[in-house]
Each structure stands twice: as C-alpha cells, then as structure tokens.
Design a protein that fits this description.
Blueprint: E1 2-4, E2 9-15, H1 16-19, E3 24-28, E4 31-35, H2 37-40, H3 52-56, E5 61-63, E6 68-70, E7 76-82, E8 85-95, E9 98-108
Length: 109
C-alpha cells in the first residue's frame, strides 16, 4: 500500500440535511471518484484489515469504548475502496447540527 500525496481536504461543513443530499467528486491520479456520504458510512475504519500503516502515518485515535477510530477533530474515520484505491474519510457532528466531512488520505492498493 502506498500513500498518495494528497493533503487533508474539507469536503463539507454545514447542516446535516445538506450533507446527505450531495454527491462528491474527487480526482485521484487518472480517475474521478464519485460518491455520496451514505456509501462512505458503511466502511467503518475499525473493520478495515491491514490498517496499521495508515494509523502510523495519520493522527487518528482509537476510542475503544465505542470501537471506533477518530480524527484530530474527533470525527469518526471511515474507508471507501474504489478500483485500486483506498480513500480514508472523517465524518461527524462537529457542533450541534453542524457536520464536517474530510478526505483524510488516499492510498494505492
């Protein structure tokens, strides 16, 4: 697995109602990845196999009480596999009714 040099990117900052209505597009090398947040939230990071390399190169924390991993902002970490890529996202309620959605990193499988 190789990390692709893409900076952490804020994809959404706003009210939850608008987050799940949007389709997002991310250019990764020679492809464009299109997705909606509902597709992302099924990939809980804690269920990902062979994640140690990602953990070692990220600022994620394990919340053993909730069996989740969180970002530096306290948002839940998710993964999304597409073609030969693994996209890592963080998503969650940042303040009451205010949601944030980040692309954390992209990895070539």
């Amino acid at each position: 697995m190789n990390k692709i040099n893409i900076d952490r990117r804020l994809l959404f900052d706003g009210i939850e109602d608008h987050l799940f209505d949007e389709e997002f597009c991310i250019a990764v090398e020679n492809i464009t990845v299109k997705f909606i947040p509902d597709e992302i939230i099924s990939g809980r990071f804690n269920e990902l196999q062979n994640k140690q390399e990602i953990i070692d190169q990220s600022d994620f924390s394990e919340n053993s009480t909730c069996n989740t991993w969180t970002s530096e902002d306290g948002l839940t970490i998710y993964y999304y596999k597409v073609d030969a890529y693994l996209l890592i996202f963080s998503l969650g309620e940042f303040q009451p009714a205010r949601y944030k959605f980040y692309l954390e990193s992209v990895w070539r499988l």
